[in-house]
Write a structure and sequence with these properties.
By secondary structure, this protein is an alpha+beta fold. Helices cover 34% and strands 19% of the residues.
Amino acid sequence: METKKDKIFPRGIFFNRKHEKQPDFVKGSIVIKVSEFGEWLKQYTGQESIKLALLESRNTDQVTGKKKLYLELDTYVKDNEHKVNPPETPPSSLSPEEMALIKSHREGAEEQQNKAKAEYQGVEDQVEVQAEERYKNMGGDGSEMEF
């Protein structure tokens, strides 16, 4: 029996509803970005075919007032059929350049966070020293203070 898995969205292929002025026999259009879809499709090399399901979102689009339609890899199979093997980790819909940019931003943010922690620790240490000095100036020896 098939278990529910993470959704896999194909990259580089999109479905658009028909424009209201188009005739009734037109249901919509499919847009394929050849290089992007081809790159995504490579991970299924060796399989006879894959099936994409055209699904309707749960939420209504605020602009059109209609539910959005989207494509998803259909991994469901009956027990006696060959299973579509999705990749072990779903591919990112971002390009390698975008992924590198995100990684560099993340590393920069971590570096800034570490600097802020070090600055905070430095300020905390200064406050502790100042408090000890004030206590000593008030006549104490500082041995009773705990921080």
